[in-house]
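INFO batch 0412 | record 1 of 1 | parsing
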Amino acid sequence: MDPILQVLLSWQFVFFGLAVATVMYVFRLVVEYLASLAKKDLTTSNLWNHLILPVTPIALGVVAAILLKTFPYPGFTPDAHGMVARGDRIIFGLVTGSMSTIMYRTIKALFYQKIVGFAQNFSGGNGTTVNVNVPTEQIPSSQLPSRGQV
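INFO prediction complete | emitting tokens
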């Protein structure tokens, strides 16, 4: 298997990315709750939607990678003290933070499909058929990278 793909599919990468997504989820809930108390609507704010929300997971990934020195970073060779170099950790935090939202959505969709399948199997035993439409999130074409960036 390709070494880069092996790192991207490692449990450390997925765990770190989901941890970043979880911290980001709590951060977003708290900020949006406080904004609602102040009678502010962040859903229409360009600063919130187009700058703060996309950049914060990346910053969280970098900060966590700098602070977590003994995390088992995959694909990096530790030094004599068992530590991975700071630059390697920062790169890992950048990539993991930027991929954390995609990981969260993918795992959420996988769990949703499993639950729907279980519910269909469970309710299908009495002869009734349950049709459930699985919602999928569509990324607007304006947010997709151009062909030269992929």
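INFO post-check: Residues 3-143 form one domain.
INFO record closed
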